[in-house]
Amino acid sequence: MLPPGIEPAELAWREGVPESVRFGDVYFNRDNGLEETRHVFLRHNNLPERFASVAQGGHFVIAENGFGTGLNFLAAWQAWQNHGPAHQATLHFVSVERFPLIREDLTRALALWPELHPMARELIRKYPPLVRGVHRLVLAQGRVRLTLCFGDIADAWQSLDFLADAWFMDGFAPARNPSMWLDETIDQVRAHSKPGTTLATFTSVGRVRRALAAAGFDVRKTPGFGRKRDMLRGVLPADGQTEANRPGSIAIIGAGIAGCTLARNLAERGVPVTLIDSANGPGTEASGNVQGAMYVKLGVEFNDQTELALQALTFAQRFYETWRGEYWHPTGLLQLAQTAQEADRQHRFLRRNLYPREVLYPVNREQASELSGVPTESGGLWFPGNGWLEPKRLCQALADHPMITHAWGVNVDRLLPCSGKWHISGADGTTIVADRVVICAGHLSAGLIPVKGKFRLKSIRGQVTHLPKTGLRNPRVVICGNRYMNPALGQIAVTGATFDLHDANPLTTSESHQENIRELTAMLPAVLKRKDAEKLDTSNLDGRVAFRSTTHDYQPVAGPVFNGQDDELEDLFLLTGLGSKGLTYAPLLAEYLADRLTGQPACLSAKLARRLETRRLYQTDVVIS
Predict the structure, then answer these.
(1) pTM value?
(2) Which UniProt keywords apply (predicted)?
């Protein structure tokens, strides 16, 4: 199968119970699969008691060998709901599946358990498209996080960064699916465990027991469920167990889309945050536009860069659903094959890649015109889950949380490490002290990094144009090519933006408006009513200038700041370089940084995390100031 698609499970339904055609085995016990899950995995990992003892702002991590129908996950979620702490804490569930169920089969399988219906409905609604890689689902308003990897189990356990508190060693029986139970796989179970980690499995096969014992687990047989006589339970001896790392106080500099999504993410995990900005509120710089399109341009080759963009895209679609109809408008997005060069690129893209239709599919000229409501000159790629946002209002909503303290009007001019903390100084004499700091200051970020030497960050001017709705054939969807065009909001629609690499002018210009109009009409000749196009006076148009922050390789950066020598600073982080795709990348990168700041399982594989490192931006070997 072409990337990034992955083969779905092929099911046979016998007496209402799903079986795997490939492995010839049932997904759960025919008599009572939910009770078997509770007996084998919940009780023998002592989960109800352990859930209740999770600390404020803490987390509990369960890892599982095979996601299947998600029954084990939903049972754990239900137990967390019933027995977890009343205060803010997070249940993380990490699972892998080589042959994932399609949404229709998942729905049918989980319908067997009415008591799980509310949770199953949310899982099904947020179930990711069937593409290879890691998918992070944020559920139960952030109290439950599912890291679901579609791919080979060996690859998953080698590339994911997490330590489990408990293991559900599920999957089909060892005789049916031996690769799930290889010694190398069990060694990875040990590598992702810490002192005191427990495990349970329905099987009692001798070679599995011996492999677990050889890996260091104290393993015992115990009565199984129903007609199954025995199962296994185990624990990794707790000698040398240490306290969990706490995030401490966190300050975020910059209240654009990156800073606001990160602040909200941490706050919902129970971590107090101070959000700092030189303006009098959030969403004033590059995130202050009236409208913004949420899209990416996926590469012809499915490499790491394309995979990161795809994961950001699908995560953002799920993330913004909370604000559907308020600040998020999922109208769909049309990426036009505007030029011969772009048409050729899209042709090669479709020939080399297989994407589910819920992500994208090709449309011809007639279909593009019908979808958009505007006559188009070409077909293109249709992204049904994309749309447009109101960035400023979204930032304001994200920053409104009781765990977020606002420090508006603070123009940060210095970061100084002192006595194990960071002292953040404002030009007006304000001082804020925090254990950890994240710089999210967009094009101003480079000037705040307290490391001698140059970080390859640059600023690019972008001007958008506000077009009066009365002069438009208003599109129903977002249309992208050399410019983007949004459906009108109130009496205006936003188009743009210019890409002015060596222009520091903060004011709108008639020339930039003319450039936007020229490129827009080349892309969509019919979008402006002809009489208005001829009379349009760009000197009277409104618009806005903002400065994008990007890197030398036009890829974002998220992680600890490289110290200019041979290591990274443990308590100073950078999140910037999102360029024109900030609305797409910010939610996933905020999730990833929040994972790192709290010591929770990472939502990105190791290879994608490496693409975000700050080390690649640094140019010379120098010492910290």
Answers:
(1) 0.96
(2) Cytoplasm, FAD, Flavoprotein, Methyltransferase, Multifunctional enzyme, Oxidoreductase, S-adenosyl-L-methionine, Transferase, tRNA processing
